[in-house]
């Protein structure tokens, strides 16, 4: 027997459904997978607990199998997933967001990545801090854009594996860089460097058991303008051969899309599609120009989209049509896009996603010359999303797109965070939460839990996070 938890469990198995299970028993096996979740008084749960009580006190597993009882105002929630983040750009996070995308890349992003590649000690400091901060923010799964250097990406992967942060590390591929000092000289040189990284990472991870490996590589052509057709074609072949996922940027902003068309005479999405890059193992960041023509392509190919609401607000002229994507059952999760976004907090991205969707709905109402209340009577689909749907994006949506779990269900990896709304020492709330009814009413019903989880969604922060597990390993 591995670990047992008794208390309240919250997750979102599908968009719009907040599942709250009170007084349940959850069991995690020695490999970090959930093997049981059911009401504590269910016969199956009682059988498990009875088996523990009858175990010999000297049993090696008995001490580790004592159930952890969650506080009466605490709950377990799946960890957050950040589907799009540039690791080296954490070096200058919070700068230059008044600039257009292409100018911002030239002035800040490429220089930071070049610095990290050229200074292993700096890479150690930046990546060590970055991994720690992500875990503090409840992020237990990430998809990183790295740099072009093999060594710095291996440093990132090792920091993740040692700390227990699950995720994907993408060594950048870019053989047509606009910077003479930061780029790869040819498609062949780029492929050689990528193979070196893949082989080195595989060699490093060989020391771990399969269930202990939480880091994977992901093929990462930066974006079309800095990659030749030859390189893109050969990256596709390599990904198919080695069974590695792929990520990039697609249809992010007007200047980026214009640059692609000027170079290739084709639209961004058409190039990716013609090269065979759009598929179930493809993650594309932004896709802010998703429209009725593109939606069937994305859905048919089962592409996953990393929605980066804060970054889009700064570096894209258009906002991602999240309501339409969810209604068409596209695979969507959230990304911070550090440093295009200035915070590592996925909780902030959830809030931003809801805010932007409401602004889009407000613009729709304005175009119809009516109020929010009147818009439903004038036809058209309400474009807003709610806080429950945003939790789905931050947990299940992101994980599902990467072939993982993201819920608290049997067979899924136990990646969870312990959220404490209040404790005995602060009965009115922990951190920024002021919950005035807890002392008199408590949280006894599902509706009361929903009300208080929503309060946490709006005003909670890292002070409410009292524990975190990835693949059953406690990492916070």
TrEMBL record:
**Do you know which SUPFAM superfamilies this protein is assigned to?**
Composite domain of metallo-dependent hydrolases, Metallo-dependent hydrolases
Q: Which residues form the Amidohydrolase-related domain?
A: 75-432
* GO terms assigned for molecular function: guanine deaminase activity; zinc ion binding
For this protein, the record's InterPro entries field holds:
Amidohydro-rel, Metal-dep_hydrolase_composite, Metal_Hydrolase, Metallo-dep_hydrolases
Name any cofactors this protein relies on. Zn(2+)
What cellular component terms from Gene Ontology apply here?
cytosol
Under the heading Pfam families, the entry gives: Amidohydro_1
Asked whether the UniProt record includes Zinc among its keywords, one would answer yes
Record's keyword terms, sorted: Hydrolase, Metal-binding, Zinc
Q: Name one GO biological process term.
A: guanine metabolic process
Cross-referenced PANTHER family: GUANINE DEAMINASE
Q: What is this protein called?
A: Guanine deaminase
Q: Which organism does this sequence originate in?
A: Kwoniella dejecticola CBS 10117
């Amino acid at each position: 027997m591995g670990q047992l938890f008794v208390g309240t469990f919250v997750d979102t198995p599908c968009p719009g459904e907040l599942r709250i299970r009170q007084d349940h028993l959850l069991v995690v096996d020695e490999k970090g997978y959930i093997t049981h979740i059911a009401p504590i008084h269910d016969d199956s749960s009682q059988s498990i607990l009875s088996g523990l009580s009858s175990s010999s006190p000297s049993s090696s597993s008995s001490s580790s199998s004592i159930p952890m009882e969650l506080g009466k105002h605490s709950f377990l929630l799946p960890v957050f997933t950040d589907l799009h983040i540039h690791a080296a750009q954490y070096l200058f996070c919070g700068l230059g967001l008044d600039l257009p995308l292409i100018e911002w890349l030239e002035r800040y992003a490429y220089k930071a990545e070049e610095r990290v590649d050229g200074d292993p000690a700096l890479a150690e400091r930046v990546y060590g801090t970055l991994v720690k901060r992500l875990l503090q923010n409840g992020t237990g799964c990430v998809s990183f854009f790295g740099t072009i250097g093999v060594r710095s990406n291996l440093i990132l992967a090792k920091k993740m594996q040692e700390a227990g942060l699950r995720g994907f590390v993408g060594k950048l591929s870019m053989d047509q860089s606009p910077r003479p000092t930061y780029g790869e000289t040819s498609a062949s040189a780029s492929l050689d460097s990528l193979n070196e990284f893949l082989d080195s990472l595989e060699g490093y991870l060989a020391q771990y058991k399969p269930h202990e490996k939480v880091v994977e590589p992901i093929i990462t052509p930066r974006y079309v303008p800095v990659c030749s057709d030859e390189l893109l074609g050969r990256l596709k072949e390599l990904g198919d051969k080695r069974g590695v996922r792929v990520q990039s940027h697609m249809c992010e902003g007007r200047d980026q899309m214009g640059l692609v068309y000027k170079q290739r005479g084709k639209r961004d999405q058409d190039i990716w599609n013609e090269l065979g890059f759009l598929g179930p193992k493809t993650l594309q960041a932004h896709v802010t120009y998703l429209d009725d023509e593109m939606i069937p392509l994305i859905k048919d190919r089962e592409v996953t989209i990393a929605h980066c609401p804060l970054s889009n607000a700064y570096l894209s002229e258009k906002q991602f049509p999240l309501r339409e994507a969810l209604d068409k059952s596209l695979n969507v999760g959230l990304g911070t896009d550090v440093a295009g976004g200035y915070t590592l907090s996925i909780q902030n991205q959830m809030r931003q996603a809801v805010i932007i969707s409401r602004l889009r709905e407000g613009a729709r109402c304005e175009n119809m010359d009516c109020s929010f209340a009147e818009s439903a009577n004038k036809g058209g689909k309400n474009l807003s999303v709610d806080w429950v749907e945003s939790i789905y994006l931050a947990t299940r949506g992101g994980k599902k797109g990467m072939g993982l779990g993201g819920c608290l269900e049997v067979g899924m990896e136990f990646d969870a965070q312990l959220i404490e709304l209040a404790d005995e020492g602060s009965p009115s709330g922990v951190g920024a939460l002021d919950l005035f009814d807890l002392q008199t009413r408590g949280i006894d019903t599902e509706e009361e839990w929903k009300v208080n989880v929503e309060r946490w969604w709006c005003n909670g922060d890292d002070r409410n996070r009292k524990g975190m597990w990835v693949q059953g390993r406690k990492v916070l």
